[in-house]
Each structure stands twice: as structure tokens, then as C-alpha cells.
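How a chain folds remains the central question behind the approach discussed here. The record that follows shows the chain in one-letter code together with its fold in C-alpha cell form:
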Amino acid sequence: MDDSGHRENGRHKPPQGQWLMQQQPSMKQIMGFMAERDAAIQERNLAISEKKTALAERDMAILQRDSAIAERNNAIMERDNAIATLQYRENAINSSNNNMSPCPPGLSIPRGVQHMHQPQQHQQQQQQHITSSSSS
């Protein structure tokens, strides 16, 4: 548009002689740029390596946590199965006695255990045994 010819099709164009006036980087400057680039690449690679290591450690911790949760769940299931088995046996004993047991409702005595109606009798027997053995 003007005599310097800076605009053509609405764009700004530098004068053709301007590129030739810029100073070319020296070999020393190029080597410096390359060294900086190489250092940045090494730093990036180290960061990537550290990230991979951290992710592997995290994944191992997650596996250990999942394993511990599975063990806990198995232990809970075993406990619940044992409780259910005991309750089943208790109910079977109670139903086989057909409510003829001298025990109060809700109290059951496992098979093979001597039934005592009065706890005081048991305590008296223990005290007599202790006094008779100490006097001998």
C-alpha cells in the first residue's frame, strides 16, 4: 500500500533485507542450545522413569490391599459359617429335647456337659473338695 511495501493482502511482511541483517548463531551457541535440550530430555526421561516406578509401587500396594481385603472377607465368612453351624446345632439339640429340658428357655447346655440346677451346689462341692484336700 505504501512505498515500503509492508502490506500485501492485509498481512504484514518484513522487508526482504531484514532476514539477511540478523546475526546467525555461532557454533558455540548452537552447542549450548543442544546441551540444554539434551539436559531437558534427560530430566524428562528421569521424571518419566520415577513416575513409572511410583505407579508400579502404587499398583503393588493396591494388590496387597485387595489381597488383605479378600483374606478379611474369607475370615468373616468362616466366622459366620461357624456361628451358623453352632446355632444350627443348638437349635437341633433344643428341638430334639422337645422343650422337655429342665433348663430355662434360651439357655442350652452342650452335649456331654453335666447339668446342674443350682449353681450353689457346684460351689459348695468345690469348697468341700478344697478344704478336704488342704487338711490332708
